[in-house]
């Protein structure tokens, strides 16, 4: 039989050109504009701006809170994805749809809601206060906000992978005498590890650049709860565009490095899977 080799969507040249145009307009040009604007200042000025004590402190707060939130999302996202894939329960479809709420909800609305709930007047804040724990206007509150915005990335990345895992692997491990912990570590974890790393990485990258959900709950105290995105906004509000773009360039480099590491890990795991 003659192979026709037809594509569902024909016209590679047109579609590829549209892909390049969209990437250029939506992603590359805005990012390049940051680099071009930053090139207007000298290298010594750039180094002085991005290594200022207050800016360095904001890097630390940003990375610390985003990393903790991403790790929490990794654990809790795995549990939630597992429950949604492996069990049937009432209102499962509703619970499944609620997972995507942070994608649709404006982050500023989320920040205001979380700030009120975790303040000393909110339900969560009052309960935590009984144990001497303060959430709002602390780094703990910032981590809560970043968990909220990053949580769907892990769940939605893991769900399709868990759905494709054949139950026969787990049954075979059980028949051979493996306990649940051994089966998870040596049968399930290798299968879901690339997706788990991808979800955690995207949650981490989102946390580094998040502004709306954090600004209301952070308190924005320099050297304590001031993240880099808030510092960039404050520079823009004071018309210090050079400092804002220089710091934004550092954030861009951080995000690129994280996504590059994710792509490198995914590539290594793909090579292992084909061996």
Automatic annotation (TrEMBL):
Source organism per UniProt: Intestinibaculum porci
One GO MF term attached to the UniProt entry: ABC-type sulfate transporter activity
Pfam families referenced in this protein's UniProt entry, alphabetically: BPD_transp_1
Protein's membrane topology: Multi-pass membrane protein
Gene Ontology cellular-component annotations: plasma membrane
Function according to Swiss-Prot or TrEMBL: Part of the ABC transporter complex CysAWTP (TC 3.A.1.6.1) involved in sulfate/thiosulfate import. Probably responsible for the translocation of the substrate across the membrane.
Family: Belongs to the binding-protein-dependent transport system permease family. CysTW subfamily.
Compartments where located: Membrane
Transmembrane segments: 12-37, 57-85, 97-116, 136-155, 241-265
Protein name (record): Sulfate transport system permease protein CysT
Complex and partners: The complex is composed of two ATP-binding proteins (CysA), two transmembrane proteins (CysT and CysW) and a solute-binding protein (CysP).
